Amino acid sequence: MVAHCGLRPMIGLHDKPDCRGRFTTGEDGTFAFRAVKPLAYPFNAGGPIEDLLNALNAIKYRPAHLHFKIVAPNFTELVTQLYLKGDKFLEIDTTFAVKQSLIVDPKLIADTSVTLARGFKEAKAHLELERDFVLVREQDLIKPEAKA
């Protein structure tokens, strides 16, 4: 599953599906998809979290990011997100979720013949992001010993 904030101000992860997708991979695990570039968005937590952020005079924004939930039989589930390099909210993410290892730098593909070969309708430059996700086999997990 992939989800992100595109043209609307909120992701709405708990609403009906929008700006997200579900994909299957090839036997080697490769996958590809197209999406709009995610945007930063205002974080409206409500309740005591909102009160705390207001008391701290905190900037309440999430940097542009993509959510990933990756599942495969006999592997542990991976839920993560990737942030776009250069976003002005990376250093002040309201949820403190940004880690250096999760910041990615999409590559500009200016060759419009590549754009057309990839099935885009218009011959325009686009961004490309490559990322490897590694899943752990369930059998390789170190399980805590049961207490007697």
TrEMBL record:
<dbReference type="Pfam" id="PF00775">
    <property type="entry name" value="Dioxygenase_C"/>
</dbReference>
<keyword id="KW-0560">Oxidoreductase</keyword>
<comment type="similarity">
    <text>Belongs to the intradiol ring-cleavage dioxygenase family.</text>
</comment>
<feature type="domain" description="Intradiol ring-cleavage dioxygenases">
    <location>
        <begin position="17"/>
        <end position="123"/>
    </location>
</feature>
<dbReference type="InterPro" id="IPR015889">
    <property type="entry name" value="Intradiol_dOase_core"/>
</dbReference>
<protein>
    <submittedName>
        <fullName>Intradiol ring-cleavage dioxygenase</fullName>
    </submittedName>
</protein>
<keyword id="KW-0223">Dioxygenase</keyword>
<dbReference type="InterPro" id="IPR000627">
    <property type="entry name" value="Intradiol_dOase_C"/>
</dbReference>
<dbReference type="InterPro" id="IPR050770">
    <property type="entry name" value="Intradiol_RC_Dioxygenase"/>
</dbReference>
<dbReference type="GO" id="GO:0008199">
    <property type="term" value="F:ferric iron binding"/>
</dbReference>
<dbReference type="GO" id="GO:0016702">
    <property type="term" value="F:oxidoreductase activity, acting on single donors with incorporation of molecular oxygen, incorporation of two atoms of oxygen"/>
</dbReference>
